[in-house]
């Protein structure tokens, strides 16, 4: 009976996570498009980036100070611990995170949706299994796996999520966990198909052709991933010194400094470096030939600075998806030199370097 309850709970959690992901991502996307593009047209009137960023950032910092002052002293993490599984915490996580991303943070939704999805799992576990805290923790893991499947709209991604979460909590994979992960992944993908939801990261068309000339390039892209990760860490530490100074002042002063730096970087880097970057990959690749090596290098540096600034100055969000954009810029750079570099192979190579370096610097999660 308990096993049947667990299977049913897994389905319920997966449905809840899929719905949460779909509507949160849609709300952020449509709000950014409406405010930044439709109403203010910051793509054309670039000077409006500054007041828009200031107003929305002060709204974010003000709401965070009012609803969750404790989080002002904490950095946003990509994979954090599960908050107390309550409806209030669920709503607070999503609302504050929504305001941060709409304010222009160069961060991803994973640091918002991961704890929210774990809260969904924990809440279902608490309600169904009462005093069994282990079941609540297990269903919180299911929530994470379902979210991983949702991000990429992929069953395989959900199963990879199982590997990641078990590594995080230092738990051995067993047949029971595999069954739950498979059920969660299938359920999530089916729900997203019903909702007509797409994967979070839009990839360009590519071929699987490769050649000997690209193998050395792929090795160099792994190195590039390492360099990028250490670069983010170095900038984060440098900007962190400024953050320690401004956090002594009221929340609005820190918010103003955060907005000033972020809007300046967005003016310097252009629209491609703004926001998470998941929707900028294809446009960046299309513009790569006209941008050239110097232009791509400039976008890379400014984007790394924007990511580091956003994380250090207290915006909510994660670094994983923005780093995918940075990795894409590295691949675009290599394609201008070696034209037959496969985009997906290149992206995987950079991310291998990123994840390898992150095991040392621990900046992404």
Topology:
Blueprint: H1 2-39, H2 49-67, H3 87-102, H4 110-129, H5 133-152, H6 155-168, H7 175-194, H8 212-246, H9 251-269, H10 281-312, H11 320-337, H12 343-361
Helix pairs in contact: 1-3, 1-4, 1-5, 1-7, 2-3, 2-9, 3-4, 4-5, 5-6, 5-7, 6-7, 8-10, 8-11, 8-12, 9-10, 10-11, 11-12
What do these coordinates show?
With 365 residues, this protein is mainly α. The chain folds into 2 domains: 2-194, no CATH class; 212-361. Helix content is 74%, strand content 0%. The protein is built from 12 helices and no strands. α8 packs across α12 (343-361). The protein starts with a helix and ends with a helix.
Query: Unreliable stretches, pLDDT < 50, 5 or more residues?
Result: none
Please give the radius of gyration in angstroms. 20 Å
H/E series, N to C? HHHHHHHHHHHH
| CA distance, first residue to last residue | 37 Å
Beta-strand content: under 5%
What is the number of domains? 2
User: Pairing-aware structural class of the strands and helices?
Assistant: mainly alpha
pLDDT averaged over residues:
86
Q: What is the β-strand count?
A: 0
Helix content: over 70%
Largest sheet: none
Global outline: globular
Discrete helix count: 12
